[in-house]
Design brief:
Radius of gyration: 38 Å
Low-confidence stretches: none
Oligomer: single chain
Largest sheet: 2 strands, antiparallel
Order of helices and strands: HHEHHE
Shape: elongated
């Protein structure tokens, strides 16, 4: 039986200084800086573009048609349904309630006794009006 011996060439003789890895420094060229600035500004530009395209004017800007209304004081036992039914007996109370809620900026159907509620004059004969 024969034995073969394999030796690695010069790897043992490489100095420790040569084996150290030197950290590389990131260098940005002018083109790289422009690209980085563009990528950083892209979300801002996209937000401005969406707001311009989705634009439209706000209702609070005064461009909408004014709504004429009468005020009604809420009495004990009153609900939006009863007020709507009394204000517009010929109309669907759900539509009247929606208009009252929109006009008074109500988020729910809860109303308190003694408060004044605006009712559009499109519905005639508002009950207990002031």
């Amino acid at each position: 039986m024969s034995t073969i011996s394999i030796q690695t060439p010069l790897t043992a003789s490489v100095s420790a200084a040569a084996r150290r890895s030197v950290p590389t420094r990131l260098r940005l060229t002018a083109r790289g800086r422009r690209l980085l600035a563009t990528l950083a500004a892209a979300p801002v530009i996209a937000g401005i573009g969406v707001s311009v395209l989705a634009g439209g004017s706000a209702l609070a800007s005064g461009e909408s048609d004014p709504v004429a209304f009468e005020t009604v004081t809420v009495l004990p036992g009153d609900t939006l349904w009863s007020i709507a039914a009394e204000a517009a007996p010929a109309a669907d109370p759900r539509d009247v309630i929606d208009d009252i809620k929109r006009l008074n900026n109500l988020t729910s159907g809860m109303i308190q006794v003694g408060t004044s509620i605006a009712i559009p004059t499109a519905y005639s004969g508002a009950a207990h009006s002031e």
